[in-house]
Each structure stands twice: as C-alpha cells, then as structure tokens.
Specification:
single chain; 535 residues; alpha/beta; Metallo-beta-lactamase, Chain A; 2 domains; seven-stranded mixed β-sheet; globular
Length: 535
C-alpha cells in the first residue's frame, strides 16, 4: 500500500475513558468521578470476585444491558490490574466522589434552614472552592457544582482519554457501557485526548472531501501515538482505493434522510442540519442503511436534544467533528450533579462552536430557523433542564423532533401549539418501556433507593395515548415514530430486543393506526428513509 491512503469504511473508532467506553457522563468531571467510584469500581470488583456470575449473566437475554463484564473468566488478572491502576491513577476522582456523599450527609444533618456560611469550612477537601451551598424555596438544601472550575481541576484529566481502532464486519457489538476495553491483538490503541487535531485527521481520511489525496499513514500513526508494535496493524486500516465523492444536495425543497434511531439529516440548498447523530459503519449487512460515507462534506448544524448516550453519542460526534460548523445544545449550567453542561463537555473535547438554546428561543439559520420547545419526562423525574425538543424550519418544511418526550402533561401542547403548529412532520419517540432510574443515574445517587421507587421512575418515552395527545393538538401532516433503538448496529448502547408483543411495538402500532383513522400519514421508522419535500 502507498504511504498515502484512505481510512476503510469499516474501521470502528471507539472513544475510551480509562479503558471504558466513553459517553458524556465520563467527560463532565463530577459525573465522571461518580461513575468511576460508584459504577466502574463496583463492576470490576464484582467480576474479580465472581467471574462465573458475569459469564452467565451476559448469556441471559433478560440481563442484557446489566452491570456485567462480558469477558470469560480467563481475564480476571487483567481486570484486577485495571482495578488497581484505576484506584491509583484516579485517586482524585474517588476522593471527589466520597466527598460528594459526605457533603450530602452533612447537609442532611446540619442544613435545617439556618445560614449556610458556617458549613463551608466543613465541606470535604476535594470539593472546597468547587461548590456553592444553597436552599431551594422550600428550604431543602442543595449543592451547586461550579462546573467550569472542575474542568480546571485534578478531577478532569484528558490523559484518561484514548481511541480504540479495529475493523468491524457486522452489526453485533457487545453492550459497551459495562465492559472495559482490554488490550487485544485486534485493537490498535491511539492514546490521544479527544480534542487532539489528529482525531480529525483520522476521521477526515474516511472521505475524499476530507482527504482529497489521502493521508500520510505513517505520519498519522505518529500523531496518534500508535505504538511501534501496532504500526503494521494500523496500516491495515487503510486502503489505496479512494472513496467515492458525495455531492451536496442541490435539488429544490428539502431532502430528509433518516439515519437510524433518532438521527435525521435535513438538507436544502442553503444549509444542512443533523439531529442526534448515530451512524453505522460501512460493511455488507442488512437492513440497508446510510453510513458515514453518505454524509455531506459539510454539516452546518448539529442539533442535540438531550444528554443520553443514544442521542449524544460521542463515537459518532468525534468522527464528524471535522465536518461540523456549529453544535446546538439545550441550555445547561444549573450546577446540578445529574445535569452537567453539554456545552462545557463539547468545548472540552474540541468542538469550537457550541451554541445553547433555551425553551422558545429561536436561532435563525440560512433559509430557516431552529426553535427550542419544552421536553418533559424521560429522565426518571430528576431535575434536568438540559433537554429540548427542536422545531426545525427550512423554507416551508417544518419538522418537530420531540425525541423521547414523555407527554406527562398534555396541556403543555395547548400552550405551544401556536409556535409548533402547522407542522409538516412530527418525529416522536415511543420507547415507552424504558430502563429504571438506577440504570443510567445509579452511580450519581448519594442515598439508596428502594426497588419499588427505582422501578416506578423510568427513562420512558410516550405510549400511544400520550403520543396521540401531541398529534391531536399539533395536527401535523405526517407522524414518524423514531428513537426506538431497533437498529441492530446500535445494540451496544441500547440493549433492547423487541418482539411483536413488546410494549413499544404494540403502542407505536396503535399510534400509527390512530393516525390513519384521522387521515394523518404515519409510520414507524427503521434503519433508513429518504424523502424530498418540494418547496
């Protein structure tokens, strides 16, 4: 192979944090510390003490997505070594997590409505100067984390970040969030922080627009820190065959492409908008789908609805960073532990242009606009403000991306229908049998909860009745059910397997029928869709 070449379409690029699959809560410092101490460490200890339990659990479909390491018992020594190294190198994070728990206990015992000032001297040392102690109007004590300062502290260490590169031949990938990525001959390690410009050079090498003459493979390996012993394996990730060019959409009106799960690409002559990107790699597989190779060279706007790993997917975001103009995220910055800022996280990992949008705030874009609308529910009743449904208007085409909104209060749509009415397309998530509170937020909890509480508070979207209430108020021309997690290439972050009897399938079928009765076109999206809307 020549020295200059292009990245193969089936090269998988996994972002890692201390060898764990990276998602947004492993970028934000406070949530990363809590996950390291209360999630990762517990999983590793459990595996070392009983690897056979983990081996049995990962074979049980009912345990899919649980806190089980997907390695056979022969790797106990490596897991033990990772545990010991993590405890040593991540000592500041473990101390921070212990401090969060101790501070919660202090406030519960001492903050009874009197002034907080005397308590500052008793804040655990790792948190001193990084928190504000406050009451809500009901007199309940709260901690506000000064998140920008935490990015400048020992709790945030970009050296924990790296990339794992390999060839992928099919859709099957084991569930990623509970199994660390141990070294393997099939993996090429690139120990660079996510913000490193070499990450963009690697990703750009997948397209002819990003690398018109290919890339200098040896030089790129050097920039990525690939070890000498892995250079030959690294070179096999590249090909002399130039990828085909993908000309931008130049037609009239708006082209809409569904890329899988909650990812939708809207293109007009003036601009390009990509919502919640989650892309498949390019390899021979069914069902047919769009891949990285089908993306336009320039994506003017990336829109993120909320901070869950299937909507804010680092693996995809890092690989398209070199194409992206501006990322639009819900306004954050409340300082609540469970609600870290997406803007700060994206800026920390190398996205230079990040804009926050608030409820009923509109951003004008060429040929249209993007407006934030309220997004209720789906976060297990936690106080999380960093979530928005987005109304995207391009010319006369108007689409509302409601994401996983759980319509717990239909009257909301009575109040916003003057803004959100006149829709061409309503995209609504109906994963209405979501995981319990602890599945995603368990490591952040400072006090135990009962199983009854955990099972009651779910990460669920709307069922048929709730979704129909949105439809009846907004009266779109068409309805698309999306964000169901059905696509086989996303099982590694979704951990869902549907049957015809599964509640989300039954409920979404019911919504499609109800829309048909009202002469509103509706369908449940799967894998791929393309439609052009005339002006």
């Amino acid at each position: 192979m020549a020295a200059r070449a292009w990245l193969r379409q089936n090269v998988q690029i996994e972002p890692l944090w201390n060898r764990w699959y990276a998602w947004s809560h492993l970028i934000s410092p406070a949530t990363a510390a809590m996950n390291a101490a209360n999630g990762h460490a517990k999983i590793l200890k459990s595996y070392v003490s009983a690897p056979e339990v983990h081996a049995a659990a990962v074979q049980n479909p009912e345990m899919l997505g649980g806190p089980f390491v997907d390695y056979e018992g022969g790797r106990v020594d490596e897991i033990q070594a990772l545990l010991e190294r993590s405890q040593r190198e991540q000592a500041p994070l473990h101390a921070f997590a212990a401090g969060v728990k101790a501070l919660d206990e202090l406030l519960a015992a001492e903050a009874k409505g009197m002034a907080m000032e005397p308590l500052y001297a008793r804040v655990p040392e790792p948190l001193r100067g990084h928190v504000e102690l406050v009451y809500d109007l009901g007199g309940t004590p709260r901690v506000r984390f000064l998140e920008p300062l935490l990015y400048r502290s020992a709790v945030y260490d970009p050296r924990a970040q790296s990339l794992s590169l390999s060839l992928i031949e099919g859709d099957h990938r084991a569930f990623a969030l509970s199994t660390p990525r141990l070294p393997s001959p099939s993996l090429v390690e690139a120990p660079v922080p996510f913000a490193d410009e070499a990450v963009d050079r690697l990703s750009a090498a997948r397209s002819i627009e990003g690398a018109p003459e290919g890339v200098d493979v040896p030089a790129l390996a050097e920039a990525l820190g690939v070890a000498a012993a892995s250079r030959e394996a690294f070179s096999r990730l590249f090909t002399d065959a130039a990828p085909p060019s993908r000309p931008p959409f130049a037609g009239e009106g708006v082209r809409v492409r569904y890329l899988g799960h909650a990812s939708v690409l809207l293109e007009s002559k003036e601009t390009t908008v990509l919502v919640d990107p989650t892309l498949s790699y390019g390899y021979a597989a069914e069902p047919a789908r769009f891949t990285y190779a089908d993306l336009p060279a320039r994506i003017d706007w990336v829109v993120i609805t909320h901070n869950h790993q299937d909507h804010f997917l680092l693996e995809t975001l890092l690989q398209i960073r070199h194409r992206v103009g501006t990322v639009i995220v819900p306004r954050g910055g409340s300082g609540a532990l469970q609600d870290p800022s997406l803007r700060l996280a994206l800026r920390a990992i190398g996205f230079p242009r990040v804009v926050e949008l608030d409820v009923l705030e509109t951003l004008d874009i060429p040929g249209g606009s993007i407006t934030g609308l309220p997004f209720l529910g789906e976060h297990a009743d936690l106080d999380i403000a960093t979530k928005l449904a987005h109304l995207v208007q391009l010319g006369t085409y108007r689409a509302l991306f409601a994401a996983d909104s759980d319509n717990v209060e239909p009257r909301l749509y009575d109040h916003v229908k003057d803004v959100a009415g006149g829709l061409t397309s309503l995209f609504v998530g109906m994963e209405c049998a979501g995981a319990p509170l602890s599945w995603l937020y368990g490591p952040l909890l400072t006090r135990p909860i009962t199983r009854k509480v955990d099972q009651s508070r779910r990460l669920s979207g709307s069922d048929a009745k709730k979704a129909l209430a949105i439809v009846e108020r907004l009266r779109p021309r068409e309805v698309f059910v999306y964000a169901m997690g059905q696509e086989p290439w996303l099982g590694y972050v979704m951990s869902v397997r549907y049957t015809p009897e599964s509640k989300p399938i039954v409920e979404s079928d019911a919504l499609v029928r109800a829309c048909a009765e009202r002469e509103i076109r509706a369908e449940r999206l799967y894998a791929r869709m393309e439609r052009v809307y005339a002006p």
